[in-house]
Amino acid sequence: MKYSILSDVGQKRVNNQDYADTYENQQGERIFLLADGMGGHKAGNVASKLTVEDLGKAWATTDFTGDSHPDEIESWLRAQIRAENENIANLGKLDDYKGMGTTLEAVVVQKHQIISAHVGDSRTQVIKNGELIRITRDHSLVQELVDAGEITADEAEKHPNKNIITRSLGQPTDIDVDTVTLEIDADDIIIMSSDGLTNMVPAEAIIETVDNDQDVISQAQDLVALANTNGGLDNITVILVKFDKGDL
């Protein structure tokens, strides 16, 4: 398995409120985490970094193995994310952090499969056989309009309310966490990203940039550069994970 994590402030923002990292547990099983913070000058930075670090440190204490049942890991992810939601919400009551929140993408890698947990409008996707497949469903106003048949998916990409999200960590009430387990094959590529990438770079360009023989570090750099070339209107964060036959 090869991976790359890259985050960039973009062309228009002063601060980077995205945060991403990876952690191993007691058995060497790896989790990837990506968060896109929101709130004031300080608050968004705090929410995203705290969420990733808290969940990463919690994962590091676990004993899940490659043979652990995915239902157990999905249940663990949901419980930890709900607890972190409460933590962020409590911090958000303080004056310095009012209104802060964050999206979250979490991916646990096991043999032959990944386990994904998702809140917000960041995305986890997989390139499989040259096709970009979205694993997660955006928790956003425009996605609800698409689901209701009021606008098309193409119209959603350019909708003026595209950035209004309907679910995030930091809510005063319990949140629903989407989880899914997906079988993976050799040569599959996992792409986790904030909307600073997906709002700037169309699917075809993501596939062209990533589905080749370049190393993953160069590919992540190329994706970020492409998002910046196309406007770089937001922070841009990308995690790429590639699998070889020996990993599965």
Automatic annotation (TrEMBL):
Pfam families: PP2C_2. Coiled coil: none annotated. Keywords: Hydrolase, Manganese, Metal-binding, Protein phosphatase. Signal peptide: none annotated. GO terms for molecular function: metal ion binding; protein serine/threonine phosphatase activity. Its EC number is 3.1.3.16. Its cofactor is Mn(2+). It catalyses: O-phospho-L-threonyl-[protein] + H2O = L-threonyl-[protein] + phosphate; O-phospho-L-seryl-[protein] + H2O = L-seryl-[protein] + phosphate. It comes from the Bacteria. The keyword Transport does not apply. This is protein-serine/threonine phosphatase. It comes from Pseudolactococcus laudensis. The lineage of its organism: Bacteria, Bacillati, Bacillota, Bacilli, Lactobacillales.
